[in-house]
Design brief:
With 345 residues, this protein is mainly α. 49% of the residues lie in helices and 9% in strands. A two-stranded parallel sheet has the order 1-4. Strands 2-3 form a two-stranded antiparallel ribbon. Strand 2 (120-121) and strand 3 (128-132) form a beta hairpin.
């Protein structure tokens, strides 16, 4: 996610910790929980920024910005005029005199309008440049509207919060939460990656390309995809993972069931033209989640609870009872018991 638990905890005056391996989502989450900013100063900064951007657009200053070397996806999603305007806003934010936290606030506002200012279909889970949606918003209007909404939100949560609470967001790995001490957490609530072949790195390709953090699919793999819990076939390196076996953290009964499911998926793979690596994806996911569950058991105080929002899975029609396997793994790595509650079918 992008800090949802931490936002809600802070609204209720509860201290919280967030652990996220995706660097962009760390940036987003940290901005979302920074409520110590002065709303009055933000309004003054917003007024100066909006004036500079509006006058710059009127004078055509953005027209001198080159978009020739940007990743091809951006040129498929935006018109050159819109892209130049977006880059102009980014430059206005980076060159304005303000504190780092304030700059992150306005950068988040800019990121939030990237999908509002294109006519391409950029919804979940894939970016589809050839499909069009409703008429896009104009860059200046979208940015001003987003900033004003965020300032109003900031003022509202500051009024509503019963006490000042801390929200620490770590760019780290749920499989090795070195920043979180043993038995230091009262409650865990998380929605880990679903075993449904969603590429959580590709989902943010638009933002990563726009920020210049990545320029190619390979760079996204190197800088983001490899950091994440395995949940999609795009994370599978068949040559590197071919010898992988179920982790010893997984109880024997689940290991045996999982081995049969993985073999069934391997055989199904040969019968399909796409030959998707669902067998290794499922195995990699369970091994990674076993590590994460062990860490969750380590940091949780005795007698306290962890809740995970999960989805089950059926790649190539082979049913994987994800909730059941993870529950049994949890008991094996230190939890006392588990139960499942069906939210929807």
């Amino acid at each position: 996610g992008s800090g949802t638990l931490n936002v809600e905890a802070k609204r209720r005056g509860v201290d919280s910790v967030g652990v996220e391996a995706h660097p962009l989502l760390v940036k987003v989450a940290r901005a979302k929980v920074n409520w110590e900013l002065d709303a009055g100063r933000l309004r003054a900064l917003a007024e100066g920024l909006s004036r500079r951007i509006r006058e710059g657009f009127e004078r055509g200053e953005h027209e001198g910005i080159s978009v020739g070397g940007v990743p091809e996806l951006l040129l498929k999603v935006y018109t050159p005029e819109t892209l130049r305007r977006l880059y102009y806003v980014r430059e206005a934010i980076s060159s304005a005199e303000m504190e780092d936290g304030e700059r992150e606030f306005f950068e988040l506002a800019l990121l939030a309008i990237l999908r509002k200012t294109t006519s391409a279909d950029v919804g979940w889970p894939y970016i589809l440049p050839r499909k069009t949606k409703r008429r896009p918003q104009e860059v200046y209007e979208a940015f001003v509207e987003q900033v004003n909404m965020m300032i109003r939100d900031l003022e509202a949560v500051r009024r509503e919060a019963p006490r000042r609470a801390e929200a620490a967001i770590y760019e780290s790995d749920a499989r090795n939460m070195k920043e979180v001490e043993d038995e230091s957490v009262d409650f865990i609530f998380t929605s880990p990656p679903y075993l449904n072949n969603y590429d959580y790195a590709d989902r943010t390709r638009l933002e990563l390309y726009f920020l210049g953090w990545c320029r190619t699919w390979g760079e996204i793999t190197e800088k983001v995809r490899r950091r994440l819990i395995v949940a999609s076939t795009t994370q599978v390196d068949r040559a590197r993972m071919a010898a992988m076996r179920p982790s010893d953290l997984i109880p024997e009964g689940v290991r045996e069931e999982l081995a049969r499911k993985v073999e069934e998926l391997r055989l199904e793979r040969e019968r399909h033209g796409g030959r998707k690596d669902y067998d290794l994806m499922v195995l990699g996911y369970m091994n990674d989640m076993a590590k994460a569950l062990k860490e969750m058991a380590r940091v949780l105080r005795p007698g306290k609870y962890a809740i995970m929002v999960l989805g089950d899975s059926a790649p190539y029609g082979v049913y994987i009872p994800t909730h059941e396997y993870l529950g049994r793994i949890a008991v094996n790595v230190g939890f006392s018991e588990y139960r499942s509650v069906l939210l929807r079918e």
